[in-house]
Amino acid sequence: MTIPMVSMITCTTTTMPTDAQVMKLAQWLSPAYPVGAFAYSHGLESAVAMGTVPDAAALREWLGDILFQGAGRADAIFLAAAYRAPDAAALAELDATARAFQPSAERLLETTAQGAAFARITGAVWPADLPDLTYPVALGRAARLHDLPLLLTARMYLHAFASNLVSAGIRLIPIGQTDGQKVLTALTPLCERVAEEAMAETLDELSSTAFLADIASMTHETQYSRLFRT
Q: GO CC annotations (predicted)?
């Protein structure tokens, strides 16, 4: 895919996030936050093994597809819906939909394991009623409980998602750290665009056409040698 040109993104609210809000999100989405994100490649390990993603340019295209047409967009929609969920029943129904939307056993593991870890550590540090949920649903709910800006939360979630997969690509392909940062920099405007568009989308607009990434997550289940859980 050719990553679409992205114009300057403008915030949908006139309220600027506070330093404390930005820092809390930075902590939640840091590689140091113990959700185990480093253990998941979202099928990238299989794609590299098959020769589909042999270099930095291919990694950028692969991740761009996932962000724009696959799990990135879907996760942003789930996150926003969780943030706006009116009650526990609506949140539980949304989480069930997020689980059903996963295309493979490994992708289900990826979102449920990270979501449970996020809920556990966040509830321990900032006591709140945060049940085990899929990752974007848990983050959306937590952001609402802590009165964090929705758009900023979605942007930073997608950037962290892309950053984790770039880190996996650096180790798997392998590519250098500099090339990895170039890939992430190129993807950052797309993270912003997808987050902004998700603010106006509903569950009725859920879709995923990143089929090769979905298939890669399935073939990874039987891959002979693996470094990652997915």
A: cytoplasm
